[in-house]
C-alpha cells in the first residue's frame, strides 16, 4: 500500500473507527500465542476425559512421547487414547478453526455481522454435496470433501448473486438470500433423505447435527491441512479485508483488488466449510459466536481476528465436543447440539450488550 | 367470509359419518397399553411396518392386507399390495382411501402423532412393542387374535419356538461370546437395553456388551465399544439394507475382534425386524458365533 492510501486511511470518521481496532504485530503475536497455549492445554486436558477412564499419568506420558511409548497403558487403552480420542479432538480443532475463520472472513467481506456459514446456506450447500456423494459415489472416499466443497461454493455464489439487487447488496438482502437458500437446501436434504433407505436416513439426520466420531485418517488429515492453509491464506488477505470493511467502492479506491479478494475469500471459505462438513456434518454457531467474541476482546483488525478466530474456534469446538462425548457416556450427543446450546445464549448476550 | 363459514360448516357436517357402531366390536389393550376398539371381523387392514406385514402373512391373513409400506418386501406377495408410503412417512390420505378397519403400527416407527390422527378418523390402531423374542411371539399371537387367525398364529409360534429351543439346546454348553452389534457406523449406533436384538444375541449364545445401555438404539461412544473388548462384531446388513452398514466403524477397525477377523455380517432383515424371521436371525447368529456346535 502506498503512503498515499495510508494517508487516506487516517482521514474520515469510519476510518478512525477502524484505526482504534488496529493492533501491532506484537499484540497479534501475544494474543495468538496465548490462545495457542490455551488450545494446546485444552487438547491435553480434554484428552484425559472420555467415556472410558484412562490412567491420567500414563496417558500424559503416552501423549508426551507422541505415541512412541505405551507408558504402561494396555493395548486397548492405548488404542482408545491415540486412535480414537486424540484424532477426534484434532478433528474438532480443525473443524472449529475452519468454521470460525470462514465466519470471520464472510463477516468482513460482506460487511455483515450475521454472515456465517450456517446462516448463509453454505453449510447446507456442503451438506447437500456430501449427501449426493454418499448416494452416488459412496465408495470413493474423496468424493465427499470434493462434493461438499462444490456444494459450499455453489451456495455461496447463489446467495451472493441473489443479494445483489439493482441497488447493490444490502446486509438485509444478504441475510434474506441466505435464509432462502438455507431453507431451500434443507428441503432438498429432506427430499433426498426420504429417497434413501431407512437405516441411512436415521444416521444421516443425526450426522447432519454434527458428528466428529467417524472421520477416516485421510479426511482428518485433509481437514487439518485445509484449516491451516485456509487460515494462512485468509490471514494474508486480512489487510484487504480491513479495507473492504469500509465498503467495496472505498476499498477499490484504496487500491484493493476487490474482485480478486472476493474470489479468494469465497473460494477458501467454501473449502474450509466443505472440508469440515464432509468430515463432521454441520456444526452450527461456531462461525457466528467465535469471531464476535474475538472482536469484542481483541478489536476488529482482521490481521488479528482471522488467526485468533481460528485458535478460539478450535478451542470452542474441542471443549463442546468433550461435553458431547462425556455428558451421557457411554452414549453420545451430537456436537452441533452443544455448540448451539452454548452459542445461542452467548450470542443473545452479545447482542444485548452490543 | 360467509362463503368460508358455509364451507366450514359443510366440511364439519360431511366429515366423520356416523359410524355404525358394530355391536360386536371388541375392546382390546395393545402392546403400548392403549385401549382399542376393534371390529369383531376384520376384512381390510393396513400394516405400517415390514415386520407386521411378515406377521400378517405368517398367520395367514395376507389376503386381507389392503395396504403396506414401501419397506414391506417380504414375502413376495407383500410387494404387490398398495403402498401407503414408507414406515416413517405414511400418507394419511392413502390410508383413509383404502378404508381399513384396522391399522397395525410398530413402536419402532415412532408414529405417535400419526396414531392420534388415525384415532380421530376412528380407525382402530393396534401398536406392537416387542422387546425380546418372547415379545415377538406375543405380537404374532396378538395379531393372530385380532385377525381371527388364532390357531394359525399359535401353530406358527409353536414352530418358531421349537426352532429357537433347538438353538438354545445346541449352544447350551458353549461359553457366551461377547458381541458388539453395530447398527450404523457413522455416527456409531448400537443396540441397547430395550432392543429385541439384545435378546436375539443372547439366545444365539452371545452376550451384547451394550445390553445395559438405556434406550433401544443408542448413539454410542467408540471408546466404550473398544473398552468393552467384544470378541465379535455383528453387522446387520445386506437384504433390503443393501451395502449400508457393511463396514466396521473407523474407530473399531483396530479392535481385537476386527483384527482377528471376527466381524460377521448377518442379514439385516432377519436381525432388525421383530417378526417371524427373527428366528432365522437367531439361527444365523448361532451358526456364526458357535459353528462347532452344529458340526455333528
Give a quick set of tags describing it.
heterodimer; A: 354 residues; mainly alpha; ABC transporter involved in vitamin B12 uptake, BtuC; 75% helix; 1% strand; globular; B: 296 residues; alpha/beta; Rossmann fold; four-stranded parallel β-sheet; 11 helices; disordered N terminus
SSE layout and pairing:
The complex is a heterodimer of chains A (354) and B (296).
Chain A: H1 3-10, H2 13-20, H3 25-46, H4 56-64, H5 75-109, H6 122-136, H7 143-163, E1 164-165, E2 168-169, H8 171-195, H9 198-208, H10 217-236, H11 238-244, H12 248-253, H13 258-280, H14 286-298, H15 302-326, H16 335-353
Antiparallel strand pairs in A: 1-2
Helix pairs in contact in A: 3-15, 5-10, 5-13, 5-14, 5-15, 6-7, 6-8, 6-13, 7-8, 7-13, 10-13, 10-15, 11-15, 14-15, 14-16, 15-16
Chain B: H1 2-14, E1 26-29, E2 35-38, E3 45-47, H2 50-58, E4 65-67, H3 92-97, E5 102-106, H4 112-120, E6 124-128, H5 133-146, H6 150-170, E7 177-184, E8 189-190, H7 196-203, E9 206-208, H8 222-227, E10 232-237, H9 256-259, E11 263-267, H10 268-271, H11 278-289
Parallel strand pairs in B: 3-4, 3-5, 5-6, 7-9, 7-10, 10-11
Antiparallel strand pairs in B: 1-2, 7-8
Helix pairs in contact in B: 2-5, 5-6, 6-11
